[in-house]
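pipeline stage [seq->struct] | target=Phosphatase NudJ | organism=Sulfurisoma sediminicola | residues=151
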Amino acid sequence: MSPAIWKPNVTVAALIERDGRFLLVEEETDEGLRFNQPAGHLDEGESLVAACMREALEETSWHVRPTALVGVYQWPRPQRDITYLRFAFACEPVAEQDGLALDAGIVRAVWLAPEEIKAGRDRHRSPLVWQCVQDYLSGRRFPLDLIRHHD
């Protein structure tokens, strides 16, 4: 029997800011209700940018336009044999799609000020939630063409 091959779980996250507030989701997890950026796993054959747009729509009912890469984050999750590799994107909100059902497990999408996000860190899905907001607020932006997708 060959040994298992380790690989990280690739995820994307959308940092959607409007009028000084960020669009987060409150979601059901094994640890109870937690806040997160609209985020999820990269699907096979999908570009990172397309995944970001899809996840934002599925989890918030907002169409977004990614404008920059904020950062790439590696998080080996404690108490689990899993490592996440997160690509976080700065996104502009384009339009909300009325009547769209949110993904299973998403309780609501909510606009929060940075102070509210920071104050609720004990209810974040991961430490990456606040780290991504901090990096966004500090002006970290990398051009999208940093990421090359080849079909």
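stage status: PASS
auto-comment: The mean pLDDT is 95. Helices lie at 48-60, 114-119, 128-137.
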